[in-house]
Amino acid sequence: MSLHRLFQLSSLLRSAVSLTLRRNIGISAVVFNKAKDLDPIQKLFLDKIRDYSSKSQTSGGVVDAGPEFQKNMSEEVAKLQRLYGGGDLNKFPDFKFSEAKFDEVAK
């Protein structure tokens, strides 16, 4: 009986130690990855995203958009305005709902 009890306790102790080690290794891996330099591919990717972000902020829109893009964009906007009755396509529409009036039903 005591041998069986000993195996149960060792099993519990082993699972607790295993869980603790997995948690500590997981946390230390995150800290270690933040501390070391980025992978060269990740660094290149982040540099390109930051570069595009700064270019789009300075241009105020799409980066490297030429006159052909602007022409196509204006044609598409005109087409949408014809299809949907004009208005400002950059503004969210205002919805106004009124209460519906129903006739009373006689019993």
TrEMBL record:
Transmembrane as UniProt keyword: no
Keywords for the protein's UniProt record, in alphabetical order: CF(0), Hydrogen ion transport, Ion transport, Membrane, Mitochondrion, Mitochondrion inner membrane, Signal, Transport
GO molecular function terms listed in the Swiss-Prot or TrEMBL record: proton transmembrane transporter activity
GO biological process: proton motive force-driven ATP synthesis
SUPFAM superfamilies in UniProt: Mitochondrial ATP synthase coupling factor 6
Signal peptide region: 1-18
CC annotations in GO: mitochondrial inner membrane; proton-transporting ATP synthase complex
Main location: mitochondrion
Location(s) in or outside the cell: Mitochondrion; Mitochondrion inner membrane
Keyword Acetylation: no
InterPro entries in alphabetical order: ATP_synth_f6_mt (IPR008387), ATP_synth_f6_sf_mt (IPR036204)
Gene3D superfamilies according to UniProt: Mitochondrial ATP synthase-coupling factor 6 (1.10.246.110)
Highest taxon listed in the record's lineage: Eukaryota
Family according to the record: Belongs to the eukaryotic ATPase subunit F6 family.
Free-text function comment from the UniProt entry: Subunit F6, of the mitochondrial membrane ATP synthase complex (F(1)F(0) ATP synthase or Complex V) that produces ATP from ADP in the presence of a proton gradient across the membrane which is generated by electron transport complexes of the respiratory chain. ATP synthase complex consist of a soluble F(1) head domain - the catalytic core - and a membrane F(1) domain - the membrane proton channel. These two domains are linked by a central stalk rotating inside the F(1) region and a stationary peripheral stalk. Mitochondrial membrane ATP synthase (F(1)F(0) ATP synthase or Complex V) produces ATP from ADP in the presence of a proton gradient across the membrane which is generated by electron transport complexes of the respiratory chain.
Subunit structure, as described in the record: Component of the ATP synthase complex composed at least of ATP5F1A/subunit alpha, ATP5F1B/subunit beta, ATP5MC1/subunit c (homooctomer), MT-ATP6/subunit a, MT-ATP8/subunit 8, ATP5ME/subunit e, ATP5MF/subunit f, ATP5MG/subunit g, ATP5MK/subunit k, ATP5MJ/subunit j, ATP5F1C/subunit gamma, ATP5F1D/subunit delta, ATP5F1E/subunit epsilon, ATP5PF/subunit F6, ATP5PB/subunit b, ATP5PD/subunit d, ATP5PO/subunit OSCP.
Protein known as: ATP synthase-coupling factor 6, mitochondrial
